[in-house]
Description:
The protein is an all-alpha fold.
Amino acid sequence: MTKPENNMPKSQQILLAIIIVIFILEIVLTAFFVSFSSPIFKGLTILHGILLIIFFTRQVKRKGL
């Protein structure tokens, strides 16, 4: 018997990579350059949250709960 493919689609992999990069960027910027109240940090946090919601929604649609 062949094993069923459980690979994540390429678009999901790219989305996950972007989420990880933004998360690392948030950590580095906050640790060394900007404060928590700066617009850059707030913008990155909002973008990060939106991308996470999109990623989780697509995963639930693909795999189910």
